Amino acid sequence: MTTIKDTPEEWETRATRTPFVGNKTSVRTDEVVMPDGSVVGRDYQVHPGSVGVLALDAEGRVLLIRQYRHPVRQRLWEIPAGLLDVPGENPLRAAQRELYEEAHVKAEDWRVLTDVYPTAGGCDEAVRIFLARNLSEAEGERFEVEDEEADMEHARVPVDELVRGVLAGEVHSNCLVVGVLSLVAAEKGDGLDALRPAEAPWPARPFEA
């Protein structure tokens, strides 16, 4: 019987170059040796990694933000999320920061909901999506946002309504879709308390405790 589990593997790379370096990401070209011995160029985006937060309130609603995403020319409903800006940064700390900055909310209960590679065919981005519960408003002044976040909208939406929207093709954010469907699967399975602890190892983006 085949074990369905992703495993580390790295094919030989004969050469590599970085034709583009941007503000937060870059593009790399690797010359990779194929199983038949041929060498093929593979272009991909180099990404620091991200965290997302599915924040679930006491009424069973998910905290959402809505902001403009220029690459797809749409204003998307999303869960709070952000880049792992500091190499080796603890992803839980990053997630707590994003929830505060984007929603002015804190949570007492944190667990790992799921880990994904959103576009493994063309980008090395790894995303850890957390489940945050026992929510309350953060103390102090709100974080001052800018750029696309300056006119963010906020909403709290029941899980069932989000699932309907996902299946109807009305919401498209990767973290929202994966997070909500994973939440429902966890609830129908062993329950939310059986999810991995917030500090669970993450081989895709090793971090300091």
Question: What brief labels describe this structure?
Answer:
single chain, alpha+beta, 3 helices, 3-stranded antiparallel sheet, 209 residues
Largest pleated sheet: 5 strands, mixed
- In sequence order, what are the helices and strands, one letter per element? EEEEEEEHEEEHHE
- The low-confidence runs, each spanning 5 or more residues with pLDDT under 50, are none
How far is the N terminus from the C terminus? Answer: 37 Å
Helix content: 10-25%
Structural class: alpha+beta
Q: Roughly what fraction of the amino acids lie in strands? A: 35-45%
Major sheet: order of its strands? 7-4-9-8-11
DSSP, total strands:
11
Question: How would you state the average pLDDT, rounded?
Answer: 94
Principal-axis shape equals globular
Report on the structure:
The protein has 209 residues and is α+β, with helices and mostly antiparallel strands. The chain is 18% helix and 38% strand. The chain has helices spanning 91-103, 159-167, 174-188; strands at residues 13-21, 26-33, 39-46, 50-55, 61-69, 74-78, 81-83, 105-116, 127-137, 153-158, 196-197. A 5-stranded mixed sheet has the order 7-4-9-8-11. α2 (159-167) packs across α3 (174-188). The longest helix has 15 residues, at 174-188. It is globular and about 55 Å long. The two termini are 37 Å apart. The mean pLDDT is 94. Pfam families: NUDIX. Residues 45-179 form the Nudix hydrolase domain. InterPro entries: NUDIX_hydrolase-like_dom_sf (IPR015797), NUDIX_hydrolase_dom (IPR000086).
Give the topology:
Elements: E1 13-21, E2 26-33, E3 39-46, E4 50-55, E5 61-69, E6 74-78, E7 81-83, H1 91-103, E8 105-116, E9 127-137, E10 153-158, H2 159-167, H3 174-188, E11 196-197
Helix pairs in contact: 2-3
